[in-house]
Specification:
This protein has 393 residues and is an all-alpha fold. It has helices at residues 6-9, 17-20, 27-44, 70-92, 97-119, 133-150, 153-173, 190-199, 219-236, 243-264, 277-300, 308-314, 317-331, 346-354, 362-387, and strands at 336-337, 343-344. Keywords: Acyltransferase, Membrane, Transferase, Transmembrane, Transmembrane helix.
Length: 393
Amino acid sequence: MQRTTQAALETTGTLPLAEASQPGRLISLDVFRGITVMAMILVNNPGDWGHIYPPFEHAEWNGCTPTDLIFPFFLFIVGVSLVYALDGIKRQGGPQGAVLLRVLRRAAVLFGLGLLLSLYPKFDFSTVRIMGVLARIALVFLGCSIIFLKTSWRTQIWLIVSFLIGYAVLMQLVPVPGFGPANLEPTTNLGAWLDRTIFTEAHLWKQSKTWDPEGLLGTLPALATGLLGSLTAQWLRRQGPEPAAKVAWLFVAGGGLILLGLCWAPWFPINKALWSSPYVLYTGGLAMAGLAALYWICDVQGYRAWTRPTLVYGVNAILVFCLSALLSRTFGLFQLALPGGKTGGLKEWLYEWGIAPYFADPRTASLVGAATLIVIWYFILSWMYKKGVVLKV
């Protein structure tokens, strides 16, 4: 970790303190990123996985809960961020070889961090999960960066349409080898078959071992999520329209995407694990509307007094995501006695003795456990925020 420049960090979701409050900075993007990361920590770290309020769980298969919005929001943010990092280079019109190499390096680092999280603490390469959250972020960042640098916004719209329709055709019309007709079931859809064929079951999501929610084929519609963010950023950076007009048209576009997603859903269900095409439209529309609202509040009206906690998280998004996962697995190495004669890791021990006894409803206790972790991370990240320390990727 070290002090870094804006160009070095915007594409991965981290920004230096010195630039986070500069005039002209898109504060709303940092705030949106911080809210998303805080939500990610909240749903990924309940005090008790057996007792969770429904909004803090993923949909079992089809459908969309608030928790299912977090990952597409983050990919949308990646798409917005890369435009702010690369637009100047694109406008210069010169050779892009050097910047493409930097983009490739950052994508490789993100992918490597994902592998590290999968390997830790056993480092068993025979069963390491290849795909995952950071792997998908890396691939979307790489693909959307290249597309943004090499194409116009009109071409990007056509690519989004092509990705979503093409993915729907593949998933709903192409027969699945060994299973028969196309289907959208967890273990027998085309994406699951492709992941098992390329990675083998040993390298898939350990909770299923037969399919992966961040599988390879699902990267195609995930690129569309990132490109929706890129188009949003290009609209916000466009010279001419007044801020009010920009916000109004973003709400119109976001509402249109939501409506399209809902209209398409009866034929191709909204589904996070499949990253279905209607899911891209629905979540992309919500992300667009959310950023538009924050842009109006923070950047246009200047109401920023409440934003500090979100900025603290937003400038070190990748750091807190990685360290929270690493610490959780490290705590699991220490097996301690729990109430009722059970044993568990250090995190479970702290929760069972320090939080759970004080709440009658175990779901409330579980939520408080997750919220406590957010507060702890806030103090750590707040100190880093003051020092201007961020994770350089």
